[in-house]
Amino acid sequence: MKRRNFLKNASLTGVGLAVGTTLVACAETTSEEKKSVDTSATNNNTKASLPLVIATWHVMDATAKAMEVLQAGGNALDAVEQGCMVEEANEKGQSVGKGGLPDRDGNVTLDACIMDKHGNCGSVVYLQNITHAVSVARKVMEDTPHVMLAGEGAKQFAISEGFQPEDLLTDASKEAWEKWKVEAKYKPIINIENHDTIGMLAIDKNGDISGACTTSGLAYKMGGRVGDSPIIGSGLFVDNEIGACVATGLGEEVVKTVGSFLVVELMRQGKSPQEACEEAISRIVNKPNSNFKDFQVGYIAVNKNGETGSYAIHQWFSMTKFQDGVNEQIQSDFFNKA
Ligand code: SD4
After folding, report:
1. In the predicted model, what is the mean pLDDT of the chain?
2. CA dist., res. 102 & res. 156, Å (int)
3. Mutation choice for ligand 1 from 96, 216, 232, 250, CB with most ligand atoms inside 8 A
4. Which residues are catalytic?
């Protein structure tokens, strides 16, 4: 038996491995329906043309890659993985994968997760020395009986699956960390360089939804800290019958409100993706003694009809959307207009 089959069939066989659900796929839309697509962040159209991809922040190369996969007939799961990999490999992005800003001790530690149309999911937390955390998360989902692997175990698993260990701390990130150490004051940074954690959601031509999220987490976090991004239900949630949501920003606040699951459940109750994102932000900012002025949280969401939404606490959060041949950055509406 191949090692991966052995792993998958190990002690948890039949327990916790998500059961495939037969889902009714959205039929491909007619050209008339395509014309009715509204690409604004607050669209309320009834059925959008497929396939479509959305992602947190300004990540046109990543959404272009995901759309290329979808156009070639690939499924939503392959699309979100390959889209996220673009940013993980981009050393200039200091919040994801190689070149990510390190923790206080100078260690780059990655969190990532992925979720498919069946509700299967995989996640890695506190992963070091492996650039493509999202792909390791997919391997956890597909080749092990588990959902989440952490730290050294996650790294050893990745190496056993053929991932090459490498130093993820680039000269630029090392220099930034060394500057930070002079004062060593920890403060969450709002909207790092208009590019942060990448969360991506896709609907393929069959109407099936998948999502992924990958990050190096908060810059200069405490050693061992894990955020929302690899936590299914917080950083990401997909329900192929309803829709999907992914989060960015201060993970602690997302975890406390189980943000992405909340957004999907609100859509299940009939809210549009936009309304659901707004409600999830309002749960954070309306907490007694909320210090929301000091941190950012942003959500993007899509429902089964391909309607999309995005909302954040502060200005300058954006969503990249690729649909109908248009790959564009859409500024998100936000709560703090004071
Ligand atoms: C985290 N949500 O680790 C991630 C990182 C992020 O702004 O999005 N930072 O909390």
Report:
1. 86
2. 20
3. 250
4. 197
Residue 323: pLDDT band with limits 50, 70, 90: very high
Under CATH, to which class is 3-11+77-334 assigned?
alpha beta
Measure the CA–CA gap between 89 and 96, rounded to whole angstroms.
Answer: 8
CA–centroid distance, 215 to ligand 1, in Å, is: 7
Of all atoms in ligand 1, which is nearest to the CA of residue 296? 7
By CB atoms closer than 10 A (0-12, 13-18, 19+), residue 171 is: exposed
Give the Å distance between the CA of 320 and the centre of ligand 1. 18
Q: How far is the CA of 198 from the centre of ligand 1 (A)?
A: 9
Q: How far is CA 132 from CA 127, 140, 329, in A?
A: 10, 13, 24
Model pLDDT, residue 191: 55
Cα(120)–Cα(138) distance, rounded to whole angstroms? 10
- Structural domain boundaries in the chain: 3-11+77-334
Q: Please name the residue that has the structure tokens 């936009």.
A: 274
Cα of 257 to ligand 1 centre, how many Å?
15
- In whole angstroms, how far apart are CA 291 and each of 280, 287, 295? 16, 9, 8
Ligand 1 pocket, Cβ-based, cut-off 6 angstroms: 196-197, 215, 217-218, 227-229, 248-251
Q: What is the mean pLDDT of residues 169-185?
A: 89
- Binned at pLDDT 50, 70 and 90, residue 92 comes out as confident
Residue nearest to atom 9 of ligand 1 (CA): 249
Give the pLDDT mean for 253-262.
Answer: 98
Spell out a b/e string for 213-222, using b for 16 or more CB atoms within 10 Å of the CB, else e.
Answer: bbbbbbbbbe
